[in-house]
Amino acid sequence: MLASGIPTRVSVPFANSGDRNTIPVPSQIGVTPGLASFTTGFPPLTMTPIEAGGVPPFGQDMNGILYAMSAWNRWQAAGAPVAYDAAFATAVGGYPRGARLASSAADGREWLNLIDNNTTDPDAGGAGWMSLGGGNDNFTASATLTLRQAGLVSVTAAAGNVTLSLPAATAAGGLAFGYEIKRYDGTGNSVTISPAGSDTIDGAASFILARGNSVTLVSNGVNGWFTLAEAVVDRSLAGTGWMQLPGGLIMQWGDANASNASDVWVTFPLTFPTALYSLTVGHLSNNTFGAVGANTATTAGFYLASYGPSGRTNAVTNYIALGA
Length: 324
Prior knowledge:
Blueprint: H1 59-77, H2 86-92, E1 100-102, E2 110-113, E3 129-131, E4 136-139, E5 143-144, E6 151-155, E7 162-165, E8 178-183, E9 191-194, E10 200-201, E11 207-208, E12 214-219, E13 224-230, E14 235-236, E15 241-244, E16 250-258, E17 264-267, E18 276-286, E19 291-295, E20 301-308, E21 311-312, E22 315-323
Parallel strand pairs: 4-6, 5-7, 6-8, 7-9, 10-13
Antiparallel strand pairs: 1-2, 2-3, 8-12, 9-11, 12-13, 14-15, 15-16, 16-22, 17-20, 18-22, 19-20, 20-21
Organism: Rhodovarius crocodyli
Domain Putative tail fiber protein gp53-like C-terminal: 245-323
Pfam families: Gp53-like_C
């Protein structure tokens, strides 16, 4: 088939203004002689010769049948959404696996059904439905994400450290699914994304989402998650500053003056939320040759000391610290 071979779209249902019957579902045999229904179609009486007691089919029935079909044809041709319908779900025994429905609660959100004979309402928290995106679930505290929240997720750690726990990579029955997680706070608190059980994220046991960053996570449907993109790197670029890299590593740097009297406390521009991994201190200038170093380093800062041949000395130093 060719894309150019698309049929002419039906903009008006057949017999829209004509004389037509609304076709009932139950059989009309024994109710109204000759009347059509969705259960029996045109009854046998309409196929019986008139001289043998038959009746001709009703033209209004034909109009009604074609109207019912062409009305749905027009709806689909217009790209209109189809939402959950409780009466329809009951009548057909539930939606089949793979059915896609539009949300009636959030414009743009779609639901994918993962089980057969599903009569539950996805907009009301019904089981067996997975979000295909279009929503935006917001978290201000630790939580476990579900299939219903697949798609766009926003999180803030303004009130404290947050852990978002992922469902099992197999939760969608082997189908790939994912989350686009956006962090919008500017605090030094941590946001940790934790996979379920023995699942991993890019081979690691967890993922640290830097403040102001977003990351897209996609399951492999088996035992892990892949990061497709981390959009933003948070930073404060100055003589004393910091940068949070994709994956959560934080690099900080700055200048500090050592004293010939005692150790000097140096505060990092940003307190490392989890740990200090490495700290390097070096000379910028000094009044005598000597060595500089750090004592009692923490996630918040360190004590700076400088020594020359005769003991403590003043010195201008710089440092680089790595942590998360």
